[in-house]
Fold this sequence. Notes:
By secondary structure, the protein is an alpha+beta fold. It is 36% helix and 18% strand.
Amino acid sequence: MFDYLNIYKGKTIVGTLRETDGKLLFEYDPLWILAPDAQPLTEDIPLQAGAMSGDNVDSFFSNLLPEGDVLQMISKWAKISPDNIFALLSHFGGDTSGAYYVLTPDLTPDSVRYMKVTPKQIREWIHSMRSKPLVLNAAGARISLSGAQDKISLMVSGDELFVPIGAAPSTHILKPRIDGRHGVEHSAVNESLVMALGEAVGLSVAKVVYRGDLLSALIERYDRRRGGSVDDQIERLHQLDICQLLNIHPSKKYEAEGGPSFKDCYDVMRTHTSTPVVHAGRLLEWLVFNVVVGNMDSHAKNLSILYIDNKKELAPFYDLLCTSVYNQLSQRLAFKIGRENRPRWIMPRHWDRLAEELAIRPTYLRGVILDIANKVAAALPSIIDNLRPLLDAKEKRFIDLVAEEIMRSAKDVITRNSLTSLN
């Protein structure tokens, strides 16, 4: 066990993280403070000398880790308490989301190594992941993005797949289907469909390919820029999710648990992006899309600000699924709309109430609702047709159920929010 961890951006030490009496202490490196291109981890962890602690430090570093079931699983197998952020980061901090990553003192940014893997090996990991987290089976691979599903970080170069080791950054996330857990089945097909649908209706989404040979969705990371081979340098892009920006612990990512409301997220677009009107509009489209496709798990940690080319932008969307097709999962939206979070109970008056909260015109919001719902209904058949050749018989039957659920929801939203209903 090390006394401290080094925080890096690129190959430069940004600072050190320590733990004293169960409290996280972060201190910027003096050379980083003096660097002409230095920037703080977040606005609430200012670029200053001396050790800092508190909710701002805890929320930033805890949000680098996965949460929920995955956190419990890796904690169990690593024999580390899920509350021990410092120890977990010492094991799994080499390929976190965004530009900053965490290494133990015995590792450096030059400790980059990739292990080539075959589809057969990945399939074997997937088959065994019910008893052991996929990422721990991957011979030292680091966790990349926080989330509620098993996943593995990969470096993809052409048709070849590599697992990043040590300080090596990944370029993609592989998300196998999670059949048998909480009544969820064919999750990878579901996500591939809904993400493609999001792109078709004009949302900015992470690039996703369904890999039938791996029973997985392969997602390209938007917080990385790279060349085309393993030897090309991969640039890590700075990003902060809404919970990090608002100093909220990941355990409170849902509004119902005391986490951010949609208005809170909307206000972040207004105050933390380079073009507030554009990104607030994109966020509104995302909310409507989730209602239309029945994605109840669209919480604050799925939203991030990406710092790229001297601009601050709402990052591409990810983790888009139709969760309403799973009866065992919650049928309530992560965000309330006009104080209502049951999709079939949301009426025009609830949208009008949301418009009032956001200080936008109800007619504008109604136009967004109808535009997204009509585009979903129009694009869905072709998305299904493109996906079906990649699926086996069971997946085809399931995807038909998802399509039926989304089309029902889209038509319901269109009927309730028809412009003819406006006074």
